[in-house]
Specification:
The chain has one domain: Alpha-Beta Plaits. The chain has helices at residues 29-35, 66-78, and strands at 11-20, 40-47, 56-65, 82-85. β2 and β3 form a beta hairpin. The longest helix has 13 residues, at 66-78. The chain contains 2 helices and 4 strands.
Length: 92
Amino acid sequence: MKTAMTQDNRFTQRRVRLQIPKYFHQEPVISRLVSDYHVTVNITAAILGANANGDGWFDLELRGIENHVQEALGYLNDLGLEVWRETDQDGW
């Protein structure tokens, strides 16, 4: 017997750009998206300062069940990180 898919448990993908300040360098921010929120993370681009002394910028694809992706985005917002979601008009 098949279970009907609801909007909260359907598979989704979101593209985001994320700024991680240098004071978070010792925190496993991206790793926690996988382990705590069960989201697959694909890093499509990254910019780090020399010797990782500055802020890091990451373009990420987050894939998973809709509510897991939303919870993962909430976690990033709760940390106070700058998060930009991809838009249809300009790509960012």
